């Protein structure tokens, strides 16, 4: 009953405060995700590249953020947001009157009361944490930020050393906010990455509490490896290596399996899913990268054929095997995923104004048959073609005569996308 009651409180509470939550926050918010967070960053980087600028991004790390929330400060913030005193009293009881104990090797400690931290694994815990840190976005005067729960990125365009000074000023404001609110930055794990295609970038020195932040050539951000050129080769190589290991485990553990359906389910869950996480961010355009990823699935298809016939056949084409087992190519699945992502943005299934405002709609002077719904973007730079928004323009315009992105239901649109783009 307590979980049900907590769920009801969360639903009613979120409905009241959702308009107060910063649009920069993507964690634990319905209709937002790691993909929306990373797209917003990628869009900023691409925009910076297009004008020949540099984007400095400071990646921060909080020490035990969820466990460090001070109850008194949290309740004061909730009161400041307009929470009724009866609700804040109930939340005080919910947070403070909790008995905790440690269980280890069949030994149980004496019960004790927690003095800080929101309950993890609960419905209310993440929402209370988001409301606690929600106000620190207002302290940044010269830079922008993106959040996924406690994962914070602070960034600004660099056109001169003055821009670095201004970003440092906002970094100082962040440290002051952390001090006042009793949250601690793990400075050793904070780093700076300068995204630029310049041969001589600006290397401003950033500090937190007089400690210099380390510079990196790459960083893992929400599971995706970003590099200074936005190339994603390092991420693809790492992803492929992990996928081969998972496929190897799958083969070893399914030696006695004979069910094609069971093998497919295991492959989809443990291998293919890892090859498709946030694919709209890193989707490659070069044939060699596409082929490297596709080989993993081709390997699995030949394993399925071996299970079916008892022998490995190397001279069978991959397209034949895909048709035989009704498994589309990974490349075509990424195309469908890209189109569906922006369909959801346009129709409100993804709630992110920054992404929606980035989409340009083609409005022809007169009605033409087969007129694309979105502008065709031409550039001599390959990194532009890799950008998911421009890939969406190109992919959707090819099939726009068969699809109505504004009025088709999600089920019908998805089904038609599969038919038109799957190979």
From TrEMBL:
**What UniProt keywords are attached to this protein's entry?**
Nucleotidyltransferase, RNA-directed DNA polymerase, Transferase
> What InterPro entries does the database record attribute to this sequence?
DNA/RNA_pol_sf, RT_dom
Which ranges carry the Reverse transcriptase domain? 1-226
Molecular function terms from GO: RNA-directed DNA polymerase activity
Does the record carry Repeat as a key word?
no
- The molecule here is called Putative RNA-directed DNA polymerase from transposon BS
């Amino acid at each position: 009953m307590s979980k049900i009651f907590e769920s009801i409180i969360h639903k009613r509470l979120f409905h009241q405060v959702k308009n107060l939550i910063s649009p920069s926050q993507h964690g634990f918010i319905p209709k937002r995700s790691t993909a929306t967070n990373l797209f917003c960053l990628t869009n900023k980087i691409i925009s910076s590249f297009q004008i020949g600028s540099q984007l400095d991004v400071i990646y921060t790390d909080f020490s035990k953020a969820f466990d460090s929330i001070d109850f008194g400060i949290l309740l004061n913030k909730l009161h400041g947001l307009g929470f009724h005193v009866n609700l804040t009293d109930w939340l005080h009881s919910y947070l403070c009157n909790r008995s905790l104990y440690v269980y280890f090797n069949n030994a149980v400690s004496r019960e004790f009361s927690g003095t800080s931290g929101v309950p993890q694994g609960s419905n209310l815990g993440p929402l209370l944490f988001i409301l606690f840190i929600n106000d620190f976005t207002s302290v940044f005067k010269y830079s922008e930020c993106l959040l996924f729960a406690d994962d914070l990125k602070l960034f600004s365009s660099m056109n001169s050393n003055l821009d670095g000074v201004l970003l440092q000023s906002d970094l100082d404001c962040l440290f002051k906010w952390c001090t006042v609110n009793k949250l601690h930055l793990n400075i050793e794990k904070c780093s700076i990455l300068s995204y630029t295609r310049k041969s001589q970038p600006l290397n401003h020195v950033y500090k937190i509490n007089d400690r210099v932040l380390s510079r990196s050539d790459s960083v893992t951000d929400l599971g995706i490896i970003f590099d200074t050129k936005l190339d994603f080769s390092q991420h693809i190589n790492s992803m492929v290596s992990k996928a081969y290991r998972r496929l190897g485990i799958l083969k070893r553990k399914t030696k006695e399996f004979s069910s094609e359906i069971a093998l497919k389910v295991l492959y989809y869950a443990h291998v293919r899913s890892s090859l498709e996480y946030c694919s709209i961010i890193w989707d490659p355009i070069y044939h060699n990268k596409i082929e490297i990823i596709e080989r993993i699935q081709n390997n699995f298809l030949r394993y399925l054929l071996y299970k079916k016939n008892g022998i490995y056949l190397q001279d069978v084409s991959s397209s034949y095997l895909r048709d035989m087992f009704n498994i589309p190519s990974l490349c075509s699945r990424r195309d469908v995923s890209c189109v569906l992502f922006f369909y959801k943005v346009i129709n409100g299934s993804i709630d992110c104004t920054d992404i929606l405002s980035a989409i340009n709609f083609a409005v022809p002077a007169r009605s033409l048959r087969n007129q694309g719904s979105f502008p065709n973007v031409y550039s001599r730079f390959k990194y532009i073609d890799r950008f998911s928004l421009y890939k969406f323009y190109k992919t959707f315009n090819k099939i726009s005569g068969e699809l109505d992105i504004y009025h088709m239901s999600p089920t019908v649109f998805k089904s038609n996308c599969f038919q038109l783009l799957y190979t």
